[in-house]
Write a structure and sequence with these properties.
The chain is an alpha+beta fold and about 475 residues long. The chain contains ten helices and twelve strands. Strands 3, 4, 5, 6, 10, 11 and 12 form a seven-stranded antiparallel β-sheet that branches. The protein binds calcium ion (3 copies).
Length: about 475
């Protein structure tokens, strides 16, 4: 997932090496860092104030898009399948999935330009490159280990908003945003295309001791390393009854059907994926396709899953998380790193509090009903019966605002600060005001669909930090 944060994981590995003199075993950079178009960077799920009867989901791919990267601008990969999954039973297996596939058309193959000056719409010949997509809604029925999948194409030929090249090519970029917002027959609203990257983080400060001490972590003086950068987003607003287990709207927070788990994935054809074996990496219901990336809760793959397991994590499904990765969550390396660096007294073992907060759901809030355990699965668990907050706390639930992370995830939730504090032991009474000094996105979010801010244009933006996709920092050692 978010490759920029692999830097963060690398930093912790480096810090650990420096502190303890361990040598981290050599490992090639995880597969997705070399495959940015398949790399999902963030998943969000929340109840929007202007759509209280719907679930709103945003999923981003391609991290760190520098706006001026022409003439071959960033875009979806026609050879990949992009997914948003919903689990309404709590077992970590999808019950409803939305499959997006894109097709790129170049109108004039003799031109190297993405668009000629003044392009004003998707059908304008001056827009030389257009990406259009279809959506297939998959519904799953399980009988033991067998699964029956029903597929229904719910949209075809919808345009994806192009990269925002600049005011000469696109004097009015908004027409492309507006033209990419579509209402489907079943009441679902969709958007796909380029937006501002909504994630905010100061990578440099996150593990810099001086900053943490001086700022007590969250006083807002950090530098957003993703400021000015774009991403490719799919945003959906789906009527609740289309995703709940009894196909009904949610009557309140205690309703049996109130909680759903959300995550996103990317698939490639098996022959495109080196080392993909049929046995080990499942999702066997998609013959010929193999999952290469997935993302539920933010930062799980970065700071919980060790480097040697990251590719495997990307290939497996949430229902196997407890079996394959449970031990890393109950004994997170990050807790040891925080103690080694800052002596914060983070509990290092038996972290069932983290398992519950991220993987099982909090009792009486976002835990699935009607399933024993409940199993530990990496999905974003959202209680659809909880009304949106009038005043959002960026700390979400630990800030007293139950409508935010880890009850789903809103765009403005400061998941870096929240997770640092939770790993330091907040839920066990060890309150340490850790944070990265960045408390909001560089651009305000929209109050209406598609909520993510407009993308910076290639012409007028100049990101201060240039991070190339596919060039994740390599951990030291080995
Ligand atoms: Ca399920
Ligand atoms: Ca941003
Ligand atoms: Ca922060």
């Amino acid at each position: 997932m978010r490759k920029l944060l692999i830097a963060l994981a690398a930093l912790t590995a480096a810090a650990l090496t420096a502190t303890f003199g361990f040598g981290s075993s050599h490992r090639e950079a995880p597969g997705t860092s070399q495959d940015p178009t398949a790399d999902n960077t963030d998943t969000y799920a929340w109840t929007a104030k202007d759509a209280p009867g719907d679930i709103t989901i945003a999923a981003d791919w391609i991290g760190g898009e520098v706006p001026g990267s022409g003439p071959n601008f960033f875009g979806w990969d026609d050879k990949a399948r992009y997914y948003i999954h919903i689990d309404n039973t709590g077992d970590g297996r999808p019950d409803v999935s939305y499959r997006y596939q894109f097709k790129t058309t170049v109108k004039n193959k003799d031109s190297f330009l993405y668009a000629l000056p003044g392009a004003s719409g998707y059908n304008d010949p001056k827009l030389n490159v257009v990406q259009r997509y279809s959506i297939v809604r998959e519904t799953y029925h399980y009988k033991g280990k067998k699964v029956h999948v029903r597929e229904k194409t719910i949209a075809r030929g919808l345009p994806s908003a192009p990269p925002n090249i600049g005011p000469k090519s696109f004097p009015n970029y908004q027409v492309f945003t507006d033209g990419a917002i579509k209402q489907l027959h079943d009441g679902t609203k969709v958007f796909a295309g380029q937006r501002d990257d909504p994630f905010f983080v100061d990578l440099g400060a996150t593990f810099d001791a001086i900053n943490l001490r001086k700022l007590t972590g969250n006083q807002g003086q950090g530098k957003d390393d993703l400021s000015g950068m774009n991403t490719h987003a799919i945003v959906m607003q789906i009527p609740e009854k289309l995703v709940t287990k009894n196909h009904k709207a949610v009557s309140g927070p205690n309703a049996d059907n109130a909680v759903v788990g959300v995550w996103s994935t990317t698939e490639r054809k098996r022959f495109q994926v080196a080392g993909a074996s049929r046995k080990r990496h499942h999702r066997q219901y998609h013959n010929g396709w193999v999952q290469v990336s997935r993302l539920g809760n933010p930062l799980v793959n970065e700071v919980v899953i060790p480097l040697g397991k990251k590719d495997q994590f990307n290939r497996t499904t949430p229902d196997r998380d407890a079996e394959l990765y449970g031990k890393y969550v109950v004994k997170p390396e990050l807790a040891a790193v925080l103690n080694a660096l800052f002596n914060v007294g983070a509990p290092e073992n038996n972290r069932t509090d983290i398992v519950q907060a991220l993987l099982q759901g909090l009792p009486m809030l976002n835990q699935h009903k009607g399933i024993k355990g409940p199993p530990a699965v990496d999905t974003l668990k959202l209680n659809l019966g909880i009304a949106p907050s009038d005043t959002e706390s960026r700390f979400g639930v630990i800030g007293g605002d139950n409508a935010g992370f880890p009850n789903g995830r809103r765009l403005g939730d400061d998941v870096v600060d929240i997770e640092l504090q939770v790993v330091a032991g907040l839920l066990k009474g060890n309150k340490v005001p850790l944070g990265d000094g960045v408390d909001r996105n560089d651009k305000p979010f929209l109050s209406t669909f598609p909520y993510l801010a407009a993308p910076a244009s290639g012409f007028d933006s100049a990101p201060s930090t240039r991070i190339e996709p596919g060039h994740a920092p390599v951990p030291v050692g080995g």
